[in-house]
């Protein structure tokens, strides 16, 4: 059932070209310039006219929500708040009938997310769900929604569910942006074609994991890791750190790269590996200077960069290249090497990657 792979997690990492393709199938129609999402668009008016969107989730699903914040604000120009379901539900949040809530959950059974949905529903909000498990409690509790078609995810560390969530959220953001008339037509069409090419690009990136293995070998005994990213790739830094800590038990923290100087920079010395997510983007020069700050303190830089980047290659200790893509979709690619890195490190440390200690696949307790 592991399809020849040593672990479910590795199988699920390698399934991503397919799971994203399955998630986009029938929804993304680049030749016709269309995005079709039946389940969501029963409530189309609500979301297109929303004055704000609140996104709730836990763990990795919350990270997908953070990516969506950048997508919805940048493309659709709708203000977004992303909340941990557990904090949202207990703080007497201000919610009205005008609000649109998007709940994200792979399992569809996370207790805190379910309770947050019930609360928002009582206050009259319209709730969309993005779940992977068909017929799950969250899928049933929401007004409308879209499934991620990632297929069953067995590994406790979420991998293919995350990229499928981001793919669905990208579809929603593009469709809403289009309906609101806030995107240039040519840019919209360019993005549809680009999104369609993502599975192929991931396939290419998965052809070899030699670089991730090599880096894992060198840093598997580190006690701490720092992950830095900016903009669309700030949530990827959080996700990379979560993946490493949950399966390898190495302490890891993700930060927006610009926050480094407000505290975490004090941690940097020659024993600190710093993973910097630095594909070509609007903030490229800024991240280059963040890398210089790490190097000036003898930190070890592992940089995830766009194909052929020579500037960062000269500064970093190691680089992992990703395929070229639009900045808005870059999280779908930059996530992949971080999954592989945490997987290999955990295996090399002898950890049970599919069933890490103290964790369950779905957290049905509050
Ligand atoms: O099933 P859900 O997406 O609601 O689960 C949320 C979190 O429990 C989950 O993402 C958790 O953080 C994973 N172990 C992360 O890999």
From TrEMBL:
GO terms for molecular function: carbohydrate derivative binding; glutamine-fructose-6-phosphate transaminase (isomerizing) activity. Residues 43-182, 215-356 form the SIS domain. Its EC number is 2.6.1.16. GO terms for biological process: amino sugar biosynthetic process; carbohydrate metabolic process; fructose 6-phosphate metabolic process; protein N-linked glycosylation; UDP-N-acetylglucosamine metabolic process. The active site is at residue 361. The keyword Transferase applies. GO terms for cellular component: cytosol. The keyword rRNA processing does not apply. Its main location: cytoplasm. It catalyses: D-fructose 6-phosphate + L-glutamine = D-glucosamine 6-phosphate + L-glutamate. Keywords: Aminotransferase, Cytoplasm, Glutamine amidotransferase, Repeat, Transferase. It is found in: Cytoplasm. It is an enzyme of class 2 (transferase). Homodimer. This is Glutamine--fructose-6-phosphate aminotransferase [isomerizing]. The chain holds residues 249 to 614 of 614 of the full protein.
